[in-house]
Amino acid sequence: MTDFLIVPQWQGSPSARAMLLTDGAAAIAGDLPRASTTTLDVPLEAGESLGSGVRRLSSLLRVRSALQDAWTDGAVVIGGDCSVTVAALAVADTSDVAVLWCDAHPDLHSPDTSPSGAFSGMALRAVLGEGEEQLALSPGIPRDRVVTVGVRAVDDEEAGELDRLTTITPEDLLRADAVLEAVRATGASRVWVHIDVDVIDPAEFAGVSEAAPFGASASDLAAAIRRLREEIPLAGATVAGFAPRTPVAAVDDLGAILRLIGALA
Description:
Largest sheet: 8 strands, parallel
Strand content: 5-15%
Low-confidence stretches: none
Shape: globular
Structural class: alpha/beta
Mean pLDDT: 97
Number of helices: 8
CATH architecture: 3-Layer(aba) Sandwich
Number of domains: 1
CATH class: Alpha Beta
Order of helices and strands: EHEHEHEHEHEHEHEH
Strand order of the largest sheet: 2-1-3-8-7-4-5-6
Distance between the termini: 8 Å
Number of strands: 8
Helix content: 25-40%
């Protein structure tokens, strides 16, 4: 049975409505099997930057410590903001792991380029082992073991970094084997699947902080993940970024989220 770790972290988000991410995590948790679900105690306070270029760093470090204590191999982490992936990968065995980064944003800023100082915009850069040293993976995941899916909202400062990674477009997902082939080409024996739900097209999914048009279909993404898992074991996964405006609105989006979780678990 898959273990689920609920991590209602909001401190990595740049959004003025970041606290909605805690509501999103709670809404997802309500539809998961209680016996295999653990909710982490995430600080409510914003936290301090501690002299770094990352806002709320002190709270992010506390979440990382809590995840270390709760981690079980192969768990699915439910955020919260999408930077919870970095905390989870920091405590998982990544020696043979590829990372599939399904996200509307590449999250490739560094503290020097980030316009907001929010860690979610630096998350994949930290997975590569770069950026704020207290948060970056050490060692980082090599670039040739990272595959992005559905990235389309790219800042100029991120474009050069994104060009160094394998990318899959929403159109590519129409062919279910596209993700499997890209991950297989990395040579990794296991895969971590990161899903920020803003990868889904806003025409079928509303509950995100910053919608980007022309996204992936939830059903196409779920089919690609199921196909991937037929051949490559899961090291763990993240589903994050759900920020429903109201409880009623949350219900409208949960079907898509549960379809993705079903493909993972």
